[in-house]
Design a protein that fits this description.
Layout: H1 5-11, H2 25-33, H3 47-52, H4 54-57, E1 64-66, E2 73-75, E3 93-99, H5 104-115, E4 119-121, E5 124-126, E6 130-134, H6 140-153, E7 157-161, H7 165-175, E8 181-185, H8 190-200, E9 204-207, H9 211-223, E10 229-232, H10 238-253, E11 265-266, H11 275-287, E12 292-295, H12 300-313, E13 326-330, E14 339-343, H13 346-359, E15 363-368, H14 375-380, H15 386-396, E16 406-409, H16 417-423, E17 428-431, H17 439-444
Parallel strand pairs: 3-6, 3-12, 6-7, 7-8, 8-9, 9-10, 11-12, 14-15, 16-17
Antiparallel strand pairs: 1-2, 4-5, 13-15
Amino acid sequence: MALTGIQIFKLLPKTNCKECGVPTCLAFAMNLASGKAELDSCPYVSAEAREQLAEASAPPIRPVVLGKGVRRTTVGGETVLHRHEKTFYNPAALAVCVPSDIAAEALAGKLKTWNALQFERVGLNLRPELVAVKDVNGDAAAFAKVAKTVAESSEFNLILMSEDPAVMKAGAAACAFKRPLLYGATAANLEAFGALAKEHDLPVAVKADSVDALVPLTSKLTALGLKDIVLDPGSRDVRQSLNDMVAVRRAALKDLNRAVGFPTIAFPCEMASNLDVETLLAAQFIAKYGSIVVLSDLQGESIFPLLLERLNIYTDPQRPMTVTEGIFEINNPDENSPVLVTTNFALTYFIVSGEIESSKVPAWLLIKDSEGLSVLTAWAAGKFAGDDVGMFVKKSGIADKVKHQELIIPGYAAAIAGDVEEELPGWTITVGPREAAHIPGFLRGRK
């Protein structure tokens, strides 16, 4: 049974050191009790107290590790219902489904294409993580062969999909080293799947006809000592599936119902007849509240916006997305190319750099650290002041890369022009457009 805030407080060191991020140990204890904090935030809790507090400090939704290697991912572990309350921690994993009767040549081609779907954004490498191998004919050997091929010839981790214990056993044996998720534990095969998951230390997904029907299944698995569980409420009706996802999340976070305190899996691939609709449904489940989302195919025009949506949702709202301070080369600039400067707010960078790129004009873009604030906000907060910008330009090393001494500043920061000139004697400070959309015309007009 979960401990109350006062019970937790009695086990804490009571130093009020504030290193956990809140003013007092009592406040920290209350946050632990409500699932809004983690015990690891306290650096002074004793080993004895840590053991007693294990249940109270555990996230209401258990984090589950899927796979191994570079695409190893963790799902679940959430502590709040809405992102603005705190943050979401573990991004929804994106998966693609392949049938067990797929030809070897076709599988090799798909894996090659899917492996290439990697996109860099804000210094991060965005990509899908999982391949779900689906048993379509009960052929254990074919199922195991496809699973082994995916595991050995790609970076993807796996979901093994079958309700036949014999087929699942063959698949698990073929790729256990990748720690696949065993999908398809039902009331009929629960004991066999539980034994297999326990034998290989693998996560297991349970499937039922409703949220309520999941409870006895998860209770039996946890009684067997299994904790890495994923939930599928079973519905493939879009509205009902969304309602089920919300119900699971609310029950785990608001009611602290440990029986449904696990990540979920959603199957847009089984709810739509084409990839476009699947993509729309996948976007829905990334937002609410699919921990794993399975598609029938991965194509750039569908997976890229989903990866961006996921990045935005799972970015800490208290820490704006930023890019690294420094010099960025756009369109292969040379010593005569113009020099522009702006802030390191990620959205600002991508909009400005995109407009410069579309202008086809080679240019140098200086990104100054503004603690993730946009130009106007950074200027108002004193994070993009003229003297600071001037000092940054001096230290950036751009003077060694260009022959001229002209700096283009954002139109919204026109007020800093005089201070920048004082800090950069001999430089010409040009005020650029206010709106990024006007940058291409501005740059082309300077030729």
